[in-house]
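#structure-requests
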Amino acid sequence: MNQHGSSAAVEGGTVIRVVLADDQTLIRAGFRALIDSAPDLTVVGEADDGESAIELLRSTRADIVLMDIRMPGLDGLAATRKICADEDLAGVKVIVLTTFELDAYVIEAVQAGASGFLGKGVSPSELLDGIRSVAAGDALLSPRATRALLARFSGSDQAGIDPSVLEPLTGREREMVVYAAHGLSNQDIAERAFLSPLTVKTHINRAMMKLDLRDRAQLVVLAYRTGLVRPGDTL
């Protein structure tokens, strides 16, 4: 477990503090070099297992953890559950790292509270933009990744949820949830619905609050498990 970085501020905002959790040293080194090259991002620690990652998050007060699923000891899935259930770590957002977007554990990670996922072959710009997006409160579920995620929900192993849980939502909030479930960003939704991105974010945040969901990614999962949106639906 290595701890680095500082909480320096950059013009117009604060540096986003990132912890890397992956048991492969070369992968961590590559991500560190890329993240540290951005003026608004910094790696504050590295861990090679889940327990070490949690310790680092407590000591560094990081904003984001890039979490590999397959690690020795406490794996990334179990670590994600612990992080997202810990009130002291409520401000930490988890981005799951996966070799394939169809990773069998991705759904479980999102349900555990992860804010989304990235393939390890992601482009440099996608990685940096993804970290910024999650730090700003969005779910990191690209249309392609969302389709991969939802392909898993079409199987019989995923139990449905009574759609009556959606009754507290207004018509506009339901509309925003449908857009989000298709992997659209707040900006994309705003353009389609002729609203400001801030208004879109407000509607989605209210929907999450009413449904007692920790994260936008969980909202996407719920939309499909209740049948509000179904695999194959188009906008």
